Amino acid sequence: MASQNNLQQTDIYLYLRELEKLSLIRLGQGNHFYFVVNRLIKRRSDGPMHQTLVRVNQRVIKEAISSHTGTNYPFYSASRLLSEASSKQFYQEVDNLYFRFQQQATLDQMLYPTEELKPFKTY
């Protein structure tokens, strides 16, 4: 986004500072940041991030499906017949797990040096 909008590092810092003032992010050194909100952040489907996010997610899914031929790899796809109540229960459990994931990421980013953190993508 910085190159698309011809932004300098100082411009990026100023925009990030505004997001930090809104309590959406916590700004670190070198314009590194992490989200401090536990809710989805809306973005436009025609906005500058949409195509990037689509490409990243497609690449991750493709790698997860095609690179692992064994039975023990981190990609699950299932279709089963369930009652509406059971479906709602599973959706709630997935939401709870996602919330715990976000909390743990926030804690790790506050407590560990950047060098000790590794990218983690859920699928």
Strand order of the largest sheet: 1-2
List unreliable stretches of 5+ residues. Answer: none
Structural class: mainly alpha
Q: Could you tell me the radius of gyration in angstroms?
A: 18 Å
**Count of runs of 4 or more consecutive helical residues:** 3
State mean pLDDT (0 to 100 scale).
Answer: 79
Euclidean distance between termini CA atoms: 24 Å
Q: What share of the residues lie within helices? A: 40-55%
Give the number of DSSP strands.
2
| Apparent shape | globular
Q: How would you sum up this structure, described in words?
A:
This protein is mainly alpha-helical. The chain has a domain at 1-37. Helices cover 47% and strands 5% of the residues. Strand 1 (25-27) and strand 2 (33-35) form a beta hairpin. The protein starts with 8 loop residues before the first helix and ends in a 12-residue tail after the last helix.
Summarize the structure.
With 123 residues, the chain is mainly alpha-helical.
Features:
mainly alpha; two-stranded antiparallel ribbon; 2 strands
